[in-house]
Each structure stands twice: as structure tokens, then as C-alpha cells.
Amino acid sequence: MAKLIYATNMSLDGYVEDENGSFDWGEPSEQLHSFFNDLLRPIGTHLYGRAMYEVMTYWETALSIPDGNEIENDFARIWQTAEKVVYSTTLTTVPTTNTRIEPAFNPNAVQHLKVNAVSDISIGGAQIAAQAFSAGLIDECHLIIHPIILGAGKPALPKNVRLNLELLNENRFDGDVVHLHYRVTT
After folding, report:
1. What integer pLDDT is reported at residue 14 of this predicted model?
2. Is residue 138 within 8 Å of residue 6, measured between CB atoms?
């Protein structure tokens, strides 16, 4: 069975965006971007909420940018190859390949996907991940913690969900960014 993996950039106080919706503080160094490439390379399907998907559509055309950096080009190729499922009630079409729209997050459908997938699945976007956490579907978390306190914003992790975690790995990156890799242990 495939694992459902949540990976996110977050502030030290647990936000993925500040109170104005900005996440510019989470710009990855080349070292961190290369780590993300390796983390997402084996992923066969990405599950996204609409807002996260719209941010990620940049990678559909990133290879056409002149003088593109090889780490970013590598990420674009990885992202373009993977299947993508977007949960949205407002989108009717998508500008990216290998992408389908689902009107709502369905825990049973995601469990079915996990059982039948040949490679792991990622989930991106704090709100859609909160639904997966609540449904008990998340198997692993990669929390990329940036050395900033935002004070308010969009939480990286859901409220009213209690899970036991086992630390599998930790890494430190340029700019005092820390990666914590956890397995959900129930």
C-alpha cells in the first residue's frame, strides 16, 4: 500500500502563510530545493487543494524559462510527470497535464487510491491535508521549519486532531532551516 505523505514549509510557530497570505519567507535555498526534488521524485500522485494547485501550476511551464536553473528544471520535470488531483468546487478546467479535478475530498476514494497506487502519494495544501489528517489517512509528515515567527496566518497542522508521531529523520539546511520527518504511529 502506498503512503500518503504531507510535506510543508512552515514557520517556527506553525503557519504556512502569514496573515496576508504571503509565504515569501519560505523561499528555498538551492540546498533545500534539491532536497525537495529528492523527496518528491518517487511520488506518483499529488493531491492538492485549489489554492496550492494554482501556486504549483508555475512548474508546468518552468522549463520554458530561458537560463533556468538545473535544480528548478529538475523539479519541473518531476512535477510534470506525476499525476495530480485537484479538489475544487470552482475549477472546471486545468492548464496542466496529468491532472484531474474532484469536486470534494473523499476519504474513501483516497484510501482506495492508497491501496491501488504503485508509488507514494503526496498531499499539498494545509486545508486539504487537515481533512486527510482528520480522516486518519496521513502516514508521514515532512515539516520544513523556517526560522521565523509569524504570529498569525494559515496553520500548517489541523486543530482538534491528536496523533502520535515517531521521528524518523532530521536535517539542517542553509539559513537555519530544519527538516523533521515523522511517521504517524496511531
Report:
1. 98
2. yes
Are residues 182 and 168 in contact, defined by beta-carbon separation less than 8 angstroms? Answer: yes
Q: What is the DSSP string of the chain?
A: -PPEEEEEEEETTSEEE-TTS--GGGPPPHHHHHHHHHHHTT--EEEEEHHHHHHHTHHHHGGGSTT--HHHHHHHHHHHHSEEEEE-SS-S--SSTTEEEESS--HHHHHHHHHH-SS-EEEESHHHHHHHHHTT---EEEEEEES---SSSEESS-SS----EEEEEEEEEGGGEEEEEEEE--
* Single-letter residue type at 98: N
Count of C-beta atoms within a 10 Å radius of residue 174: 10
| pTM of full prediction above 0.85 | yes
Q: Tell me if 63 sits within 8 A of 78, measured CB to CB.
A: no
Q: pLDDT tens across 96-146, in order?
A: 999 999 999 999 999 999 999 999 999 999 999 999 999 999 999 999 999
